[in-house]
Amino acid sequence: MTDEKPRDVLLASGVRPNGQPIHELWLRITIDRKLNVVDAEASSDWVPYPGLCQVSNPAYRALIGLNLRQNFRREAARLLGGTEGCTHLTELCAILPTAAIQAFAGEVWSTGDSAKGAKASSGNESPDGSNEHSNDKPPFQLGRCHALRFDGEAVQQFYPRWYGHAPRSAERVASSGDGAVRQTGKGGNASGMNDGSGNEVQSNSQTEGNHA
């Protein structure tokens, strides 16, 4: 998050000249292919109270062990809300699930029609052992927004096999995780993630939280 004012600003710690940030904050996490947080780091490059705001940075290692799709936002707020952390860094936590999903869609799970050239035993199995490219599962993104609703024009045109699809109740439950859009009525299935690590996701307003 970068916070700049088009004027000189009088802070308790002194005048911050026009062009110098009031805040410049970073939050970086490393995730595995199941969206588990395996490392976390916060940085406060510019703050209104130099030498004091930075003291809370190590608290963000509390994110390690959380899963971006399992109540992540709620757990982050519980662990880091109030005086436990920095208000702005804690707010950045909320966009991490979206950043991760956007970064890895099509890479670690299928966003194409699984009926078109998917290979069995391709190594894309979900945590429950099912194959991510299974022909009986719609592409991950379907049923998660207005444009890609199952009864919409986009699905009819680009994914005709799934037009009018009514997800099973188990799929609706799976897609209601914290890192995915909650479904009511028609919705899509959630995809599983493979084991592995080394995927970094950064939150910063300059990249709109979608830099990975």
TrEMBL record:
<feature type="region of interest" description="Disordered">
    <location>
        <begin position="113"/>
        <end position="142"/>
    </location>
</feature>
<feature type="region of interest" description="Disordered">
    <location>
        <begin position="167"/>
        <end position="212"/>
    </location>
</feature>
<protein>
    <recommendedName>
        <fullName>DUF2889 family protein</fullName>
    </recommendedName>
</protein>
<feature type="compositionally biased region" description="Polar residues">
    <location>
        <begin position="191"/>
        <end position="212"/>
    </location>
</feature>
<dbReference type="Pfam" id="PF11136">
    <property type="entry name" value="DUF2889"/>
</dbReference>
<dbReference type="InterPro" id="IPR021312">
    <property type="entry name" value="DUF2889"/>
</dbReference>
